[in-house]
Fold this protein.
Amino acid sequence: QQPVQSPQAVILREGEDAVINCSSSKALYSVHWYRQKHGEAPVFLMILLKGGEQKGHEKISASFNEKKQQSSLYLTASQLSYSGTYFCGTEGQAGTALIFGKGTTLSVSS
Amino acid sequence: DAGVTQSPTHLIKTRGQQVTLRCSPKSGHDTVSWYQQALGQGPQFIFQYYEEEERQRGNFPDRFSGHQFPNYSSELNVNALLLGDSALYLCASSLGGYSNQPQHFGDGTRLSIL
């Protein structure tokens, strides 16, 4: 079951904050976040595991609500380099394949 | 430290033909996953290889097959190409599989079917 991301697109000015949400209809073991710039490979940002463990980027934070099967990515004091499409990938059980959402496009202007 | 490399970067084929895409994982990684990414969509999982065996497979027909070599590099083969196979094909490598390990993606192969 593909996770649903919201919003579909966000437009920000430098220094503003944004929240990107990822929601699944099934129980989740982990949520992975990636950013992809146009014409480039997706780049790893964060992994959130059931039980609270997190691995990821120093300047980006995220939350994982296991009961609601939701994750949110928090981008604070946005920079021009934050522009791109953000994907969440969800894992239903440990060791199963990641299912990616359709993405959220973030545009940051000066 | 070399990251994930994929070849070729672009490929144009006609319907019915066969294609082979190649991937070299990041140094130290032993697991390779392949994804298909249509324009404006998220990556869709095709299959994963670990220890030279297909460990998991997504919802793709048997026309899609793969292989992993002893040096952990991998190939994706697609037979009887259809127009709908036009997409960006991404390879991602990781250590030991999913869960607590990030995947490192290559830049992809852009496949166009005429």
